[in-house]
Amino acid sequence: MPEVVYVLADGRELSIDVPVGQSVMDGSVRNNLPGIVAECGGSCSCATCHVYVDEAWQDRFDEVTDEERELLEFADGVRPSSRLSCQLIVSEQTHGARVVVPTD
């Protein structure tokens, strides 16, 4: 099972097994990690699952959609590496992916 490394706002790094086909958000919520609120439950309508994807892993996930881009415009602390974790679907190619939970 692929692992995702979550860097939490307090600096802790946790490696979590996330099944193929689930989202990075699912991995966080199912393991009660702080910082990824996911108010909309993963339907790409709230931006409360905002994360930064490590540059080395950005091209392993699908491209940002227009809908995701529009939601990110309203998120705090947006950077070029910003993504909504509900849109980051885990695959074998994403094993070891590293995401940072914003401190904002």
Detailed description of the structure:
By secondary structure, the protein is of the alpha+beta class. It is 13% helix and 20% strand. The protein has two helices and five strands. It has helices at residues 24-30, 66-72; strands at 3-7, 13-17, 50-53, 82-84, 97-100. Strands 2-1-5-3-4 form a five-stranded mixed sheet. A hairpin with a 5-residue loop joins strand 1 (3-7) and strand 2. The relative contact order is 0.29.
Question: How is this structure best summarized?
Answer:
The chain is α+β, with helices and mostly antiparallel strands. The chain has helices spanning 24-30, 66-72; strands at 3-7, 13-17, 50-53, 82-84, 97-100.
Over all CA atoms, what is the radius of gyration? 12 Å
- The strand order across the widest sheet is 2-1-5-3-4
Report mean pLDDT, rounded to a whole number.
94
Secondary structure class reads alpha+beta
Determine the N-to-C terminus distance: 31 Å
User: Level of helix content?
Assistant: 10-25%
**Which H/E pattern describes the elements?**
EEHEHEE
Low-confidence stretches: none
How large is the count of helical segments?
A: 2
Shape designation: globular
| Biggest sheet architecture | 5 strands, mixed
